[in-house]
What we know:
Structural class: alpha/beta
Order of helices and strands: EEEHEEHEHEEEEHHEH
Strand order of the largest sheet: 5-4-1-6-10-7-11
Mean pLDDT: 92
Strand content: 25-35%
Amino acid sequence: MTAVIAAAGSGERLGxxxxxxxxxxxxxxxxxxxxxxCLASGSVTAVVVAVPAGYAHHLQDVVTVDGGxxxxxxxxxxxxxxxxxxxxxxxxxxxLLSPELLDDLVAELVANPDADAIIAAAPVTDTVKxxxxxxxxxxxxxxxxxxxxxPQVFRTDALRSALRSTDAVTDEAMLIExxxxxxxxxDPGVANLKVTTPLDLRVAELLLAERG
Length: 212
């Protein structure tokens, strides 16, 4: 499997003053934590990173490609450098990735040959409201709601085909779903925080420190 790390985000909501993936976290650029996990996975044979313009020199021992105008554009650029049957897409903004999670996802996808993809996801614990303006119009049944995360592991040909359809997505699994493909979910069972705000950054640093 090739691991693709999406690292071209601006970090605007984080107030980082530069790309989020290269913000210091625990004394290292945030992306380093995901890179370590990918390189330690027994399933990963290559790593491709989609980076902002001018940041390729920050990374060694991996393939870098230019980030696209959209997330889907970045992933499409990275897929041009992928020649393995499986590909994992991961956000650099989720630095708590573990090699064990990657390997578990691969094992489950391989065990289900009729599936096109599998994603890390967790059951929603909050009561979710559908809102129009400032008015609640519906309370959704949280027992069937899961929050999608990364990594997401795909059969490479299925993802390539699905990416041709549109670039207006927030995760690649949406494209497989829209194309009628089968996507499995896997609860990582541990914190897999996405860093979006300064508070998230502090929490991630504490959790990484606890891991030692």
